[in-house]
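In response to a reviewer's request, we include the raw inputs and outputs for one of the modeled complexes. The two entities were modeled together in a single run.
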Amino acid sequence: MDTHSHSATQTRPRTHTLQFPELDRRIECREDETVFAAARRAGLRIVGACGGRGSCGSCVVRVTEGQVHREGESLHRKWLRACCLQPRSNLTVEVAPRSLAPIVRADVSTGGDAVTLDCDPAVRELTLQVPPATLQDLASDTDRVRRVLGEQQPALQPTAIDWAAAAELPGLLRAHDWRVSARFALRPGGPRLIGFARPGAPLLGLAVDLGTTNAAAFLIDLGQGRQGRRLASLGLENPQVAWGADLISRINHAIGQPATAEALRQAAVNAINSLAHDLARAVGAEVGDIAEVLVCGNTAMQHLLAGWPVAQLGRAPFVAAMNEPLDVPARELGVQVARGANLHLAPCVGGFVGGDHVSALLATEPLWAHPGTSLVMDIGTNTEISLVHQGRIWSASCPSGPALEGGHIGSGMRAAEGAIERVAIGAEGRLHLQVIGGGRPVGLCGSGVLDALAAFVGAGWVDARGRITGSGPAIGMVDGIKAITLAEETQDIPAVRFTQHDVRAVQLAKSAIRSGVVQLAAEAELDETQIERIVIAGAFGAYLSVKSGVAIGLFPDLPRARFTQVGNAAGLGVQRMLASRERRERAARLATECRYVELSLRSNFQKTFLHHIGFGH
Amino acid sequence: MDTHSHSATQTRPRTHTLQFPELDRRIECREDETVFAAARRAGLRIVGACGGRGSCGSCVVRVTEGQVHREGESLHRKWLRACCLQPRSNLTVEVAPRSLAPIVRADVSTGGDAVTLDCDPAVRELTLQVPPATLQDLASDTDRVRRVLGEQQPALQPTAIDWAAAAELPGLLRAHDWRVSARFALRPGGPRLIGFARPGAPLLGLAVDLGTTNAAAFLIDLGQGRQGRRLASLGLENPQVAWGADLISRINHAIGQPATAEALRQAAVNAINSLAHDLARAVGAEVGDIAEVLVCGNTAMQHLLAGWPVAQLGRAPFVAAMNEPLDVPARELGVQVARGANLHLAPCVGGFVGGDHVSALLATEPLWAHPGTSLVMDIGTNTEISLVHQGRIWSASCPSGPALEGGHIGSGMRAAEGAIERVAIGAEGRLHLQVIGGGRPVGLCGSGVLDALAAFVGAGWVDARGRITGSGPAIGMVDGIKAITLAEETQDIPAVRFTQHDVRAVQLAKSAIRSGVVQLAAEAELDETQIERIVIAGAFGAYLSVKSGVAIGLFPDLPRARFTQVGNAAGLGVQRMLASRERRERAARLATECRYVELSLRSNFQKTFLHHIGFGH
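The model returned the following structure tokens for the whole complex.
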């Protein structure tokens, strides 16, 4: 009782209004929460690689009006981390350019891009004119539809009708003069009537590459004669990063805490819903026009999305609940597309080698399907690697972390305007920077991180053990830690630096990946030098400098001609699976052909890892 | 802004505690709501045929302690309608015996009842021992199950696995030493793995006859070798009566008001969940052991349960969204049984001739499947009639109202202890009553209502036009209306009376039903006298006196031998559909064989109705 009367006298925290002029948004923020937390809650696209724990530095803002909680410091117009600021008055907040999450890139304005997909989708559409209900014709609405189908398209006569489709039909028929667009899912047992839409509505599909750090989605036209045209694509940060940048953190959050597991699940669903909504709007369609969703992600991402337990996946022997491809009613997961839409989860291999890697293998099959030895690497927060040798496939997953994507790097950012993407050091120790868009540098993207470190190692600014030891005008102590400054702070832009922490993060990433390659080669009883082709996939993989990768030991030192860089192969693969039933079946077979190798259980993995952590040759 | 400050100064209604000693329950009730409303909200089983609008008199209680809102009257220990009482202090409330809803009747104590069902269910169970996950065996949990199935029972190798089943598997395997009970649904495309349960868990099915006024449910053992044994059954008032006793009232509530439609849907779901819960508990099982649910109801009930629009069903030409049988994931409707369980909605014929009538036809087929002419009547709040003539079936629905079930009758009650089930008038005008259980009369059940009216008509107490006109000690004015007293008020029990209103209610019911019979005969170009067999189904139909029915003109005056009374045929039919796939298919065919007749659109229906409303011969 005491407790009750006590809490009754407590005052609730005050709330202030935050203005974000560039985003044209105004949100509320309590005195006991951070600017970052309030921005996330309100759906503002502020980058936050560490999820607001103050360990990265990707959520940089400055306060141009108002007071924050840190007294005694002159914070006005100083660049600060949003996750370390609490308001004490209404604020006007400016977001640093590198901390703004990317926006929609709709290909629709250019009439679709060059990608053409084999189109034999699992969903079909047919517009029907049915006879109206009269006193002489009292048949049910679905019976009317069946009657017309029997006359016009017997092959689409459904073996089953979705109950939610029956809910949509009466209203649509009567609103559109008894014309309606019927939507079918082609299933082994026969067509299933999954829904109805206004006559003339497009038939769309959504392919989602649900990455650990970023989600990419592609809106595909699945209508007859449209040949799987890609209408638009969009990338978004995976909001699960709020529970940790790496998979193990998220799994540990979810284990034994159903509410947290559900919050993680909901975060993934929110990302897909947000992508679906923005993409549909960008092409003038509705989310209800999306009749199928294809999702690929690593095994843990797919488990979290489906709400499956992850305890057994997060502990040795790291066993999935389910690896085979799966059809789930999208609405049961809370995915807001057409009510009867199917969500197809891509097949997984095992451990963390999931549907995204199978998708990448599917997309790159023409590159590795030859008699020799190939390596396919999908570089990301988790890096999956497959070694193909004489028709056999060994697959493994390496926890490489987000450093190579510019995440968890002090001045890291996405490959967007202002990002340093190339770094070289001239003879006189001068830094040569190549910046996306050609303007002033605001941060380092993944390829810039790799180049920078290779250049520092080459110039001796970073030694063989990874310590910043060189000297020069750019090298100094910042906030008590050694750092190399690539661009000084200006009036509008915070300084771009590469710190000792950043070196360590890249060391861990590159050694994890390289050790995976070495171990897989050992499994196949091969030497790295016998690898005839290395396919580097992933958004970062498309832009990195192979030379820099070799220089820091990320890749084996093989002739440059053996390397092939492709873009987001997982994204391309998941689109192919969406557009073609044959490709979907191929992916299912491919997943069973891969032999999963659990690196962490190999006795010599630790030794291999330590061997590759430095920069000595 | 004014509004805000105004409402802030308003005081919220006070809340009082109501004690119900017989029910061993204590609930909260606001001063601005009635005792009936609070009881319904709390799930107390108080009968309320009119849904608390004060138009029936089925919710009789008396207050033994405390004050109510009706001042100036001496209400203490007086029998009153709970829907007309608001508390002004804490109350102790006694519920009249006839107003207590019936309780669980579990046949399990007697080892199941005599009904045996052809058992070839659509669900199967298999207990598996799978090899544990080890460092040497990293297969996913579902792959382990598939492997064992392939060795032991290849016929059950699933073509699909439910996503929710995959969620249950990891925990169950590790909790039960890698033994698990797998549950399958047999589908045309092959077996579907719908869930997992603890080893040894029973495999149960739930059959529900979702009537307009009452819902009856039957728990069936579908395990191998159990031969579809019925374990328990339970009846419950359909909580949708709160939106009206008749279908049209509920439909009008639902049209254009999505929140009300959803509340009606939820009420039906709550009833099914309550039945499932109480039945499972009665036999020591869990709701998660229920692997399939079969539901039959009239078309409107099935529409409301599925959340389908009813606007087109409530207006001419009265067209259903869907008549064919349908499989719905139970969880999508909110039905809390096994997560992967299917809910099968029985096929409907058209108009309001729904799955319950098809179930009744299925159960009574041996009685009507002969070359001659038969009539099958399922008497209820909506009465469905089928006329079978030389292999053709004409079907119609009559809005008969709840009077013949003892609903909307002042002293009406269920056929439970204390109900008057037989009434006769002796030579000297003395009433002879037969009471269920042999004790003192507390109300009239359906067969008693029918007998009473037949007796009153025979004795001249009710004239040919339906007016109470006779004289005698039992006839008098009560609350300004003519009434016949069957039992005087005692200290514990309110009086049992038959009022002029009750006579009118029965007149409307009997004429609606009889007119349906006449119209169907006309459709088949027959005379009523040509009907060789009349099958009377429905809980009420089992107990009514055919003689009384003929006497008041409910039935045509045919030789008694032509009448066959069966019990809840719809309930039996839905059990058969649950236990046997062959019976389910037969029901689907049967529904398409029935030719629906919309009585209200027949030009001479009104004339026929008026012709049969009186008691003249």
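As requested, we also summarize the result in words. Residues 276 and 548 of chain A are 37 Å apart (CA to CA). The first helix of chain A runs from residue 2 to 9.
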